[in-house]
Amino acid sequence: MLTFPCAKINLGLNIVAERSDGYHDIQTVFYPIPLTDALEIKHMDPAFPSDHPCDLKVTGNAVDCDERSNLVVKAYDLLAADFELPPIHAHLFKRIPSQAGLGGGSSDGAFMIRLLDERFRLNIGIAEMERYAAKLGSDCAFFITAEPSYATGRGEILEPADGPKGNLHGYSIVVVKPDVAVSTREAYAQIVCHMPRKSCREIVRQPISTWRDELTNDFEGPVFKAHPELARIKQSLYDMGALYAQMSGSGSALFGIFREIPQGVEEQFKDCFVASAVL
After folding, report:
1. 255 vs 262: CA distance, rounded Å
2. Cis (ω within 30 of 0) for the bond into 149?
3. Residue 227 phi, psi (nearest 5)
4. Which residues are catalytic, by number?
5. Which of 233, 241, 107 is nearest to 177 (CA)?
6. pTM, whole model, 2 decimals?
7. How many CA atoms does the CB half-sphere of 186 hold within 13 Å?
8. Helices (DSSP H) in the chain: which residue ranges?
9. Do 97 and 38 meet the contact criterion of CB atoms below 8 Å apart?
10. What is the tens place of the pLDDT at every residue in 214-227?
């Protein structure tokens, strides 16, 4: 059985408070985009046994991948603790770049939960799958439904975003990921928590023409200071006609929202991963 874990972008990202558990409370709108990995599972062939009941092979855009620590394997182990699952072979083809703020690893883990539930008829239910996914990572629960969502808490408390799907339907997106690694821990260390005057959910319900002045990602300040080339990519997206451009998550991918995909994007960012699609 085959599924296609999708990437996400953040429409706004505000770090509003430090938590006693070492995490931070955030406000953001998660929005799924049609940039996907591919994940396939099948019963383990007795002729090719493995010392782990989830035998994962990762190919594609994967750098120094440790299969045993992959969230796909962790998702299997999480469900196997509560359900009888047969040994399986799993193949993950990576296209979503890592360390990009696009949620690729989180999506893979959440889609594995969905895939196991469907393939083995576990009948877990969406709410329970979200609870399992939240144990894998703060943004994993979003990918159980992968619907535009306003996220608070660590990112696991989800409410309908309402506006973004209508606002962005028919627009185009360009994602640019340079060969830059951003330390999320270091980025958080430089954040001054604050409650925004207006929540990102309110802003994304407004016309897109208002987003550039109001919709912000708190990580851009410290990350752009450490990696000024990311700020230049954002400005280049605006120069190419983006209605709105932002870094996703803590980076290092940036995206631009356009009425139509501009010509020459790959040439403009020839040393970067570039993906474009109609939303």
Report:
1. 13
2. no
3. -135, 75
4. 8, 139
5. 233
6. 0.94
7. 10
8. 71-80, 104-119, 126-136, 142-145, 163-168, 184-189, 200-204, 211-214, 220-226, 228-239, 265-268
9. no
10. 999 999 999 999 99
